Each structure stands twice: as C-alpha cells, then as structure tokens.
Amino acid sequence: TTAAPTTTAAPAPAPAPAPVAVAPAPSGGMSADEAAFLACVRQRESGGNYAIVSANGLYYGAYQFMRSTWDNTAANAGRGDLVGVPPNQASPADQDAMALSLYRWQGKAPWGGYC
C-alpha cells in the first residue's frame, strides 16, 4: 500500500514590527541644530502659535518678529513677496523660512542670544 500524501500549512506570517517614534527630519536643508534652536524659539516666543500678536502689538507670528526685522530679513533672503506682509499673516512655512534666514544671517542675537 501507498502512504497518503501529507500536507503542511504555510507558516504564519511574522507579526509586523512595532512602530518606532522618529523625530521628523529637518526640512528646507536645515541642520538638526538649527531645527532644534528654532523649535525652542518658536515654543518660547509664541507657544507655537503662528497667528499670535504680542500684547503690545509690536511682535508678530511664531517667532515674534518686529515688522522691520521681518521686512529686512525677507529682502535679505530674496523674498520680496513677503516684504510688507505682517509676519503673523504669512504661512507657517514662510515664517519658518524667514526665521531660518534670520538665524543664518544674524545668529541667535535676534532672540536674546539663547533659547
């Protein structure tokens, strides 16, 4: 007599690995140090609120730009389209870009030299 053929079940697929939290990569060619400093400034100055205006009406947006500083930074960065735009009315991406431009142009000094 002949033995009956045997069948084997396919092995169960391995469970998917658990997701790992990874910090977002810096955007816009920003270094990790630049991203960390600007995130600290944004939190300290405005709690991350891009639309905020200071109580005295002199500072605008997430990084609390003075209008003159914003306009000078935008001009220096070749962003004439942002000159005259109130910083708190610029997009978050534009505010981030101008903060990075100001940081690269003048360092930490515009925010008191630290964060």
What does this structure look like?
- The longest helix is centred in the middle third of the chain and has 15 residues, at 32-46.
- The chain is an all-alpha fold and 115 residues long.
- Helix content is 35%, strand content 0%.
- Helix 2 (67-76) packs across helix 3.
- The protein has helices at residues 32-46, 67-76, 92-106.
- The protein has a domain at 32-110: Lysozyme.
- The protein is built from three helices and no strands.
* Mean pLDDT across all amino acids: 84
The N- and C-terminal alpha carbons lie at a distance of 85 Å
Q: Architecture of one domain in CATH? A: Orthogonal Bundle
Give, in order, the helices and strands: HHH
Going by helix content, strand content and strand pairing, the class is mainly alpha
Output the CATH class name of one domain. Mainly Alpha
Instruction: Please bin the fraction of helical residues.
Output: 25-40%
> What's the main sheet like?
none
What best-fitting shape do the alpha-carbon axes yield? Answer: globular
- CATH fold title of one domain: Lysozyme
Helix segment tally: 3
Low-confidence stretches: 13-27
Beta-strand percent range = under 5%
Rg measurement, Å? 25 Å
Number of distinct beta strands? 0
